[in-house]
Amino acid sequence: MKKEDEIMFDHNGDGIDRRGFLKCMAWAGTGTLCVMKGGVLNSYSLSALSKLDAKATMGELSFVQISDSHMGFNKPANPDVIGTLKAAIEKINALPGNPEFLLHTGDITHLSKPEEFDNVQQILKDAKVKEAFYVPGEHDVATDEGKEYLERYGKGTKGAGWHSFDKNGVHFIGLVNVVDLKAGGLGTLGHEQLEWLEGDLKGKKSSTPIVVFAHIPLWSVYPQWGWGTEDSEQALSYLKKFGSVTVLNGHIHQTMQKVEGNVTFHTAASTAFPQPAPGTADSPGPMKVPAEQLRSVLGVTSVNFVRGQKALAVVDSNLS
Amino acid sequence: MEKKVKQTLRILGIAILLVVGFDQSTNLFRSANAAPLLNPSTSNEMAAEVKIDNFSFSPATLEIKAGTTVTWTNADDIPHTVVSNDKFFKSKLLDTDQKFSFTFEKAGTYPYFCSLHPKMTAKVVVQ
After folding, report:
1. Model pTM greater than 0.80?
2. pLDDT per residue as tens digits for the range A148-166
3. A75 and B121 in contact by Cβ < 8 A?
4. B3-126 belongs to which homologous superfamily?
5. Which of A224, B22, B89, B102 stands the most exposed, by the fewest C-beta atoms within 10 Å?
6. Which is it for the CA torsion A17, A260, A177, A235, positive or negative?
7. Chain B within 8 Å of A186 (Cβ-Cβ)?
8. B-chain residues within 8 Å CB-CB of A184?
9. What is the CATH number of domain A3-313?
10. Residues B87, B92, B98, B100, CA torsion sign
11. Out of A75, A142, A286, whose CB is closest to B93?
């Protein structure tokens, strides 16, 4: 990863190019529909589906990503996370053409409590998808170093829950970057997982489309708030030979996209509450928006982020 | 003569202060040992507070005397933890308004962080 390609513009001293960031983010989406077409992944905001051309969502493979359901959260930013998660599932079920499966990119629960996991499991049963795949967020491994999480979602995974699988010729890799974090640091994959990743990719044809999903962004969104992963560059170095790599993350409770060479990065909105744009608040804590806006501010603006002469990201398809 | 009396009184006074002071510190030592996590702010104990707010510990550097019980309170809408870098002390997950206390018996510098948000770092300096 070249430093100058990063979306972080720290040279102004305020930590961020706000104009650029505000262009490529939107609040409180409930989910993302991802459609793979010819190895290129397009993503659509679920909130804009009514305006969607059915053809646009047909591809070789479609799946949905939801993130940061924070079951158990009950603060003013959203006193009803059950209701909003249910709304997200309703959106998924209203999709034209059933998505193959669902990815949850972590922070399933707020406090890693069994009853919180139970609630999410119960609600996701109503999703009309064949399967669901998960990676943990830091909130899912906070009380017991991930035991409860692994009991529920660890089957067939390695280490703290990392795993890979293939669907319709696309190779999916779920990574865990929320355990054993070091003081002062960011998200961490760790040596063992990186080794596994290198081995997992060995022998894969470079034409194989790759989708990597993990909780904390695998790109440097805003390290001052911990929005990045220490050793993501090493992980991405293993992905260089592949023509199409898509990285799906959560954690920052807002959508963001970036293209860097062969890699397209997306972060998903939360189903629970929004967080401020990088550097626009004292801290990344839950952001309170007027109640009537929480569900309705779901429209995602497309990104057409041009920095200088080099287009950084034109990824999400705007449906409005 | 008068001068001598004054001097005696002064010495006596210092001696009394010393005894009281010593007595208090031994009491403190005992009670802190007996129940380091409970009721840290009773009048006779040395106590200090750290507030967790806006994803930061404040004060970021807390200077205390040995035997002081430090209580962290999470004022954020997001849970945090208090974990020393070498795992010498480690709180459970602290949800909003929950507290964690630890009594520092030995001098030294104790850097710590939040294991969920490791950018949150601070230290306790014990004299």
Report:
1. no
2. 999 999 999 999 999 999 9
3. no
4. Cupredoxins -  blue copper proteins (2.60.40.420)
5. B22
6. negative
7. yes
8. 113, 118-119, 121
9. 3.60.21.10
10. negative
11. A142
